[in-house]
Amino acid sequence: MSEIQTTKCDLAVIGSGLAGIAAAVFASQNGIDTCQIGVSGGILYASGYLDLMGVHPVEDRKIWVNPWEAIDALVRDVPNHPYAYLSKADISQSLDQFADFMADTGLPYKKNENQNVAVVTPVGTVKSTYSVPVSMWNGVPALADGRPCLIVDFWGLKGFSALQITEMLKPRWPDLRAVRIAFPSVDLSIDLYPERMARSMEVDDNIVMLADEVRPNLNGAQVVGFPAILGMNTTERIIRRLKDLLDCDVFEIPTIPPSIPGLRIKENVETVLSARGVRIFGQKRVICAKQNKEGGFLLDIGDFTDGKPEHRLEADGVILASGRFLGMGLHAGRKKIRETLFDLPVFQPADRSSWHRKNFFDPCGHGINRSGLEIDDSFRPLNQSKKPAFDNVFAAGSILAHQDWIRQKCGAGLSISTAYAAVRSFMRHMQR
Ligand SMILES: Cc1cc2nc3c(=O)[nH]c(=O)nc-3n(C[C@H](O)[C@H](O)[C@H](O)COP(=O)(O)OP(=O)(O)OC[C@H]3O[C@@H](n4cnc5c(N)ncnc54)[C@H](O)[C@@H]3O)c2cc1C
Predict the structure, then answer these.
(1) Mutation pick for ligand 1 pocket among 14, 16, 18 (CB with most ligand atoms within 8 Å)
(2) What kind of architecture, by CATH, is found in domain 5-106+262-431?
(3) Closest Cα partner for 344 from 317, 312, 320?
(4) Which burial class, exposed, middle or buried, applies to 156 when counting CB atoms under 10 A from its CB (0-12, 13-18, 19+)?
């Protein structure tokens, strides 16, 4: 068998969910020679909204308008939450730096400084979030002010119903109407796939045809909401064009997975990162990690299904952003939850009977959803003796213990800010 090729780098980022993406972004901004490995993570399911901190305590379902006050209260009550290892200035800086990068990729974000905003979900409920893709922003004032609005869906598009959204929102948004139309130049009898729809919207003729279908249904609407399929790479341009053609504001509403906003982030970010020299091993996994004599890491990369190494990385340090159960950074066996790559100790409930509460919808959440890696204040995972397991392994994102990002509504904020801190700690380590 021929020798597998070896690539050397300063930093290996393991994971290409939001935490891995953010770590690769911050590393590249700091000129670190970086490789990134991972199959598509939760990002492909994500709405595109960037939550910072919305709900605490989860058992009271207390929703906060000011995310920073929410973080203060959270850190007081849960002193080992990952946010407790960060200053507010760092969290804020990380979000701003990430947003600047997103704008460079053509996916700008918008927020009200220090204030969560209410946004529409794919099923017509309302949630609060912090930073919103500009393509979705016009929905924020429209919902807040109840502006006359038309929600559009398409024959053949499954999992997005304008009627469901309008029925759900009617009590708080009476001036909301739904219409179902044909997607431009597509046979009505076939199923529509969001990715194909988004790519076809890049063609100007299709934008014009879409506007022609929508226009007769406006009937006084000042704003029009579409499922988030308005392009893959030039969404801002497409929305501006539709605004001109319809003479009213336009916004996107996330769809259920597969999520085009998530796919856009992944595609656009990876394109820019590759151009800036980050080497990306997409749709691959690290199947084995060993420390070498110098203290660096040898990482064998391959396809998880056959377990055969195809490539070897030699890295001075690692950021582990491998997620929880969905990303497969953690594995729940019959009795124990394990970290899958370095076999790091995992904070978890004492036994399996306490993983879940009896009621699946219990507002307190489930013990298993706070399991993960405990860290020191440099974001290094701890060993059994509560000391850093390695000098040069740092962890970020949902793999971290003592947080329930889904219920606390802090998914993106947690991923981005802990990735920022992990990169900074790696840089300090390199300077020593
Ligand atoms: C349905 C859904 C909706 C969401 N909606 C929102 C929202 O509205 N707002 C918000 O703020 N956040 C949202 N999020 C959360 C957000 O997108 C992030 O998924 C979350 O914050 C955790 O990201 P992560 O990178 O830590 O983990 P993951 O996304 O799970 O990524 C883990 C990555 O690690 C990789 N990996 C694991 N093991 C290995 C290995 N051995 N080698 C190489 N790679 C490995 C995986 O392939 C994957 O790429 C949503 C997530 C989901 C699933």
Answers:
(1) 18
(2) 3-Layer(bba) Sandwich (3.50)
(3) 320
(4) middle
Expressed in angstroms and rounded, the spacing between residue 37 Cα and the centre of ligand 1 is: 13
Q: Residues 375-400: pLDDT tens digits?
A: 999 999 999 999 999 999 999 999 99
Best CATH choice for the domain 123-255 from the list 3.40.50.1860, 3.90.226.10, 3.30.1300.30, 3.40.50.280: 3.40.50.1860
Q: Whose CA is nearest to atom 22 of ligand 1?
A: 398
Give SS3 for 145.
Answer: helix
Rounded to two decimals, the pTM is 0.96
Ligand 1: residues with CB < 6 A are: 14-20, 37-39, 41-43, 45-47, 49-51, 285-286, 321-323, 326-329, 341, 397-398, 405, 411-412, 414-415
Q: How far apart are CA 52 and CA 238, in angstroms?
A: 28
Which pLDDT tens digit goes with each residue over 268-297? 999 999 999 999 999 899 999 999 999 999
Residue 192 pLDDT class (50, 70, 90 cuts): confident
Q: Enter the tokens of residue 45.
A: 């399911």
